[in-house]
Specification:
Layout lengths: L1 H18 L5 H4 L6 E9 L5 E11 L4 E12 L10 E7 L6 E7 L4 E10 L2 E6 L7 E9 L2 E9 L7 E9 L2
């Protein structure tokens, strides 16, 4: 009997270790992001006109949701990086813990986010407000077949968010 209990405990541990974000309710809440999306900027203070694609896909046996982006065309002010490249990884430290994300780009920026899903087809990535400097918010919302996104900034001591870049597009 003890042997069965030990095997059951090991099997449960292995199954929970293998499911990661893809196998829990929090990770499944981000399923709507998965796929290859077209993107075209529609506003924001960057004044950039950019088209491109981004891909959300499960990696590392489903433990990570990764976003890879690429630009196909860009017209922007001189201070905007039209060669921009970035990676976003969504993960869960431990079962039962909130989802987190980490962002890296070719300009050396690193942003740590907590991730929430306020509605079945929306996700909000929010940086830690206690860190020095501005706070960042990344928002995705799927309405019908159209995915829209916003990268927003809130300066210290301010209540309002300013959209640096907004985009939308359909799944390819």
């Amino acid at each position: 009997m003890k042997r069965i209990a030990v095997f059951a405990a090991i099997a449960t541990t292995l199954l929970s270790a293998q499911t990661g974000p893809a196998g829990n309710d929090q990770g499944n809440a981000l399923h709507f992001l998965e796929g290859t999306w077209e993107a075209k900027t529609q506003g924001g203070t960057s004044a950039a006109n950019v088209t491109g694609t981004y891909i959300f896909r499960r990696e590392l046996a489903g433990h990570i949701l990764a976003r890879h982006s690429s630009a196909a065309g860009c017209k922007a002010p001189a201070d905007f990086d039209c060669e921009h490249g970035d990676l976003l990884y969504v993960y869960q430290d431990m079962p039962g813990q909130p989802l987190k994300a980490i962002y890296f780009d070719n300009e050396g920026h690193v942003i740590h986010y907590t991730v929430s899903t306020p509605a079945p087809s929306s996700a909000v990535f929010l940086s830690d407000p206690s860190l020095p400097g501005p706070q960042f918010r990344l928002v995705y919302e799927l309405k019908g077949a159209l995915m829209s996104g916003k990268f927003q900034i809130r300066m210290p001591g301010k209540a309002e968010w300013t959209s640096y870049l907004e985009w939308s597009g359909a799944k390819k």
